[in-house]
Design a protein that fits this description.
mainly beta; Jelly Rolls; eight-stranded antiparallel sheet; globular
Length: 345
């Protein structure tokens, strides 16, 4: 009996020992780490900062305008942004269009009047067609006064609004105006639309901005990329004029000719003569400034190209005479010219 009691007492001690092992020990709770807060504010729990993933900036690629792929049967801007009125169509005027495979006496002629007060001397010897391009060249003439020998080419056909004309041209790289314009009349009575008058290489004196007053009306230091478009309406010796100086640097990023000088590349330059008072200019298929007159254009006009110079900085100054013997820089060239009338469908 005594042994039985001892066994029972041992079993109780064992059971008490097992219950004590299963209990969770009384461990003090650990406080979260406190973040130091600004003075006067209680401490706050600060969640971990998760940096968002950095995204690389994305830009849509620019689709370049393909100047070689523009539709030759229509004005260049039609291929870029067609703003032709829906009820109208462009009809090509062959008498004022030419790819210049040869000189065409039925379309073009030379004139020989000279600009007053300049060293310019006009002759047909300095123009023609060569390698599929119309050229006008400046050469040195053996004359102390009229030493800048050059040429001027006109269309035999005249035209009025609504019409559009454009040419692809590259300028001579001398200090001279390379021009593409419309005109009819004389100095005192005329209508004139100067689509481009570019001097790509004005003299160092004319480029020097420090010599120009603040209100100087011309900017020859910008001439290499400027169009210098303008108009004149002269009636009874009273002249109305205004200019619009668009620049190749103003072209869109999609244009391969953006920022190029006029002697650096062939530029497609044109004018949409919309009505009796409005002309919209174009450069390489894009709008390039416009003019609105105070009185009406009333004449039919000819297409004209010429190359000329003048001592004053509003033209860009005179070139060096020896430059006129350099055939690599003394010639302006026109790859083609195309002209349309705008007619009802």
């Amino acid at each position: 009996m005594k042994n039985f009691k001892i066994l029972i007492w041992g079993l109780c001690i064992a059971l008490l020992s097992c219950n004590s092992d299963d209990e969770t020990p009384n461990v003090p709770e650990e406080k979260p780490t406190e973040v130091e807060s600004p003075a006067g504010n209680p401490p706050v729990d600060e969640p971990p900062v998760v940096e968002p993933p950095k995204e690389e900036p994305t830009t849509d690629p620019v689709t370049l305008i393909d100047l070689e792929a523009l539709d030759a049967n229509l004005p260049s801007f039609v291929s870029v942004d067609d703003t032709t009125p829906k009820d109208m169509k462009w009809v090509k005027i062959e008498a004022m269009s030419d790819e210049f495979e040869k000189w065409d006496d039925e379309k073009w002629f030379n004139s020989f009047w000279n600009y007053g007060g300049t060293p310019v001397w006009m002759t047909d010897k300095n123009s023609g067609v060569e390698d599929g391009k119309l050229f006008i060249k400046a050469t040195l003439r053996d004359d102390p006064t009229s030493w800048f020998q050059t040429a001027r080419v006109h269309s035999k056909t005249k035209i009025s609004f609504p019409m559009y004309t454009e040419c692809s041209m590259k300028t001579a790289n001398i200090s001279a105006f390379n021009t593409f314009w419309l005109n009819n009349g004389d100095i005192d009575n005329r209508d004139e639309i100067d689509i481009v008058e570019n001097n790509p290489n004005p003299t160092p004196e004319c480029r020097d901005q420090s010599t120009k007053p603040a209100d100087f009306p011309w900017t020859p230091w910008l001439f290499p990329t400027q169009m210098n478009s303008q108009y004149f309406i002269a009636k009874n010796s009273k002249t109305e004029r205004h200019e619009d100086n668009f620049d190749t640097r103003f072209l869109s990023d999609a244009n391969p000719n953006k920022g190029k000088t006029w002697d650096e590349a062939y530029h497609i330059v044109g004018a949409w003569w919309k009505d009796e008072r409005n002309v919209q200019f174009y450069l390489n298929g894009e709008p390039a400034g416009k003019i609105t007159t105070q009185q009406d254009f009333t004449r039919e006009l000819e297409i004209i190209w010429d190359l000329w110079t003048f001592k004053d900085c509003n033209i860009g100054g005179l070139p060096q005479k020896e430059e006129l013997n350099d055939n690599s820089i003394n010639t302006m060239r026109v790859d083609w010219v195309r002209t349309w009338k705008l007619e009802a469908k």
